Amino acid sequence: MNVDILRPHACEAMRRAGRAAAATLSAVGARLQPFVTTADIDQWVREDTARRGGRPSQLGYKGFPAAVCTSRNHVVCHGIPRRDEVLLPGDIVNVDVTTELDGYHGDTSATFFIGEPSPEALHVVDVARRCRDAGIAVVRDGARLGDIGAAIEEIARAEGCGVVREVGGHGIGRRMHLPPHVAHTGVRGAGMRLRAGMAITIEPMVNLGSHRIRTLDDGWTMVTEDGSLSAQFEHTVLVTRDGCEILTL
């Protein structure tokens, strides 16, 4: 497996792309409220990304029809924004932004509360955020991919949640998706070793119920098989000698 090791100029370009994606996600998140549509979110992402000199990486990717993924309640990932999908009080929604800037990509997502969250929503969102942070905490030169998955899975299992297995993180750089695949389940000490200069995403999808999912007829939207809530948080990170640098803070 050929994995890109980024040179200093490429690392700096990744920092700029990561900052742009994070700024767009923050700006859009601040506008979320009841009765916004997911199509509104798509329009805001397009406008904000353009203002920062970037391009939405997801737009047209393998035919994806939107500039952002909007995954609401039981939607795990790859939700397609729609004019008729309205955010209601009590919903949760993941907004997944990827920005291409000067030929490099920054990828980040967060799950937001719409109005007052239920105890179940609070729980799954908290667990998903902690899972992401636990995965990031083990990243360093010489660590293995299995260390990331194991750290994530241990927290989710202890909290009674399932971790999605069919999709995961990925390498990132001059393309949005590059090797390696970053599984969010795993065994410590197993898998490929990380090397300083690698850029990867860590983006666990955590379900309140079973880890099982299914894909809708549109070919993109993945939902929990049991209809339970799902939450996700994502950062792009750069592996360093003694840890990692989060590029999408």
- Count of distinct structural domains: 1
CATH architecture classification: Alpha-Beta Complex
Query: Using DSSP, what is the number of strands?
Result: 15
CATH-assigned fold name:
Creatine Amidinohydrolase
Determine the number of helices (DSSP H or I, runs of at least 4 residues): 4
The gross shape turns out to be: globular
Beta fraction of the residues? 25-35%
User: How far apart lie the N and C ends?
Assistant: 29 Å
The main pleated sheet reads as:
4 strands, antiparallel
How large is the radius of gyration?
17 Å
> By CATH's scheme, which homologous superfamily applies?
Creatinase/methionine aminopeptidase superfamily
H and E string: HHEEEEEHHEEEEEEEEEE
Secondary structure: helix percent? 25-40%
Give the rounded overall mean pLDDT.
98
CATH class designation: Alpha Beta
